[in-house]
Design brief:
single chain; alpha/beta; TIM Barrel; Non-ribosomal Peptide Synthetase Peptidyl Carrier Protein, Chain A; eight-stranded parallel beta sheet; 13% strand
Length: 333
Amino acid sequence: MKIGSLELGKHPLLLAPMEDVTDPSFRLLCKKYGADMMYTEFVSADALIQDISRTKQKLTLFDEERPVGIQLYGKDIDAMVEAAKIAEQSQPELIDINFGCPVKKIARKGAGSGMLRDIPKMVEMTEKIVKAVNLPVTVKTRLGWDEKTKVIVDVAERLQDVGILALTIHGRTRSQMYTGEADWTLIGEVKNNPRMNIPIIGNGDITGPLKAKSYLDKYGVDALMIGRPSIGRPWIFKEIKHYLNTGECLPAPSINEHIEMLMDHLHRSINWLDERRGILHMRRHMAVSFKNLPDFRPLRTKMLRSNTVEELKNVFEEIKRTYAGYYSPTEEK
């Protein structure tokens, strides 16, 4: 699959942009486990042009994680164009426009998936960003605002016509948020539309290698984007790649291997932030770790209340002793 001149190979696996998740520490970890393309956290156009330091920090990229895209969101066309120009200076491989975030404080203001209620503005914004930068521009969006307005087939054509070079579709409407099952039928319809000639990337409910293979075979998408299932389980990329290449499922990681991964992530997070903030950031990932272990609640509580690396190491050693011989099963359903 190619996005402009960027060659990503056959059926690449992309790490979805996720706020408070896809910082450099997690991106580098997912790269280690085989993700082919990274995306930053959501970058607010308004905050970027106001020179907010925390937002500017999101533009920090490392050569080891490339290729990487910077994802922007906003409701004002001029602000988005200006933000795209600023983001371009960080030299990502591409600029991605967020027309998919369903969070109320973003969507209700007309940004993210809120743009699905104003398709002409969505198209105009996209066209102006394409013309303003010299990098490939891509879009991530949803099927529509709600069940009655699944407009993705038409929207995909119009976005392609103004110059985007790839389109990622999450198989839910905005009103669904993240509930229910993702509907891939319309993703497949966009991919198989003879009018479409750009890569179509499918997103939603890719929880393991069997689903990944099934969706690729059934809907014919060019690539898969994986978001929430990678939290606490970055090895999902390795699992999927192995299955696509061999037809065999990798054994689940042992508890010791899982803890080694968490320690790797912890050190990367601390190096990026500092000990206190790095541990706080890790709690989202630790909270979904080991959730299939029996009677794990007391140790989970202790793990999530740890405030230093030394405390966490002691908890991890207790987990090793208590659950020796256990594995961290996959989440596939």
